[in-house]
Amino acid sequence: MLTSRKLFQLVLVAVFLVGLSGGFMQVFAQEKIGLHSINVDPQKPVEKMYFRLVTHGGDDPFWAVVQKGMLDAVKELGCKADIDLCGGDLALQQKRFREAVAMGVDGIALVINDATAWDEPVKEAIKKGVNVIGMNNDDPEGAAGNVRFCYIGQNERRAGRIIAERLFETAKEKGWDLSKAHVAMFVEVPGATYGVVRSQGIMDAMKKYGITSYEIIDAGGLESATVQSREVSYLLAHPETKFAIGLGGICTDRLTASLKEAGYSPGEIIAGGFDTTPGTLTGIKQGYIEATIDQQQYLQGYFAVYVLYLMRRYGFAPNIDTGGYLVDKGTIGVIEKLSPLHIR
């Protein structure tokens, strides 16, 4: 078992390994908005440092794991941090961000869930001396689209392509005619960056396999019952559906129950999506879910705190790729073993 000191040393090594790319991000941001440096204070005691994670997330299993990662890092470092869960309400999320900036916090980890709405707020926050990093969702153009200092999370387009290729390859092995297949993509918050970019990756894979028929369905927000109701309604109304993909964790979590309620047996519709919530893991074991993408949200909460600390203390701004890992029946045991540690 690693001690906190040894774990911190490992984190420092990781930071140095990726520090070069982080340095490029810092220079880019400085050139674009006329900054002199990341806000650094080597003398400030860590116990007086306060960080905020400003997210679009809700009160659900996915964000409970993010929060667990944040709390573990806080305990190890001895600093303070809070997480804002805004339930998909962009206006509320922007309000919480402005509040954190006005408080003069030591750093903010922000879910950049809109391609344009965060451009000016982030720029102004950095000008005021508040370090801002992206987490969980990034601008589709990365540093070229938003001047946040770095990003902690998965490559969303790549992740979308990976899960789609897995589902389509499974169908191909079954002998399905993919030229006639219909893909249903369910998303909790239409227009949010995560869904848009993941769907782009899925469509990249669709071109590769000759699939042209698809629809992106508004699942109605972050409330599980609403999501399931909309999924069931769509599946009943569209029997041509051959693939069901959840673009977010809640939509994927509800797919198993939705397929059952719509009268489908395992494998009749090949389903998959994102994150490793309890419903999704159950679906994999029962055969309703072919595979899912694990973006390691625990690491997003954990490293958000560590990176903000390292920025404030030393000026480091590393990019950290946390995920894009495929989970299926062959790898689910590892996830199930670790999950209790993340959410207890």
Task: Tag the structure with descriptive keywords.
6-stranded parallel sheet; 344 residues; Rossmann fold; disordered C terminus; 6-stranded mixed sheet; elongated; alpha/beta
Q: How many separate domains make up the residues?
A: 2
| Topology-level CATH name of the largest domain | Rossmann fold
- Ends apart, CA distance between termini: 18 Å
Side-by-side strand order of the widest sheet: 2-1-3-4-5-11
Specify the CATH class of the largest domain. Alpha Beta
Please tally the helical runs, counting DSSP H or I stretches of 4 or more residues.
11
Unreliable stretches (pLDDT < 50, length at least 5) are: 1-36, 340-344
Portion of residues within helices: 40-55%
Q: Care to count the β-strands?
A: 12
Secondary structural class: alpha/beta
If you average the pLDDT, what whole number results?
Answer: 89
Q: Architecture of the largest domain, according to CATH?
A: 3-Layer(aba) Sandwich
Element-level helix/strand string: HEHEHEHEEHEHEHEHEHEHEEH
CATH superfamily of the largest domain: Response regulator
Fraction of residues in β-strands: 15-25%
Largest sheet: 6 strands, parallel
Radius of gyration over C-alpha positions, nearest whole angstrom: 20 Å
Shape: elongated
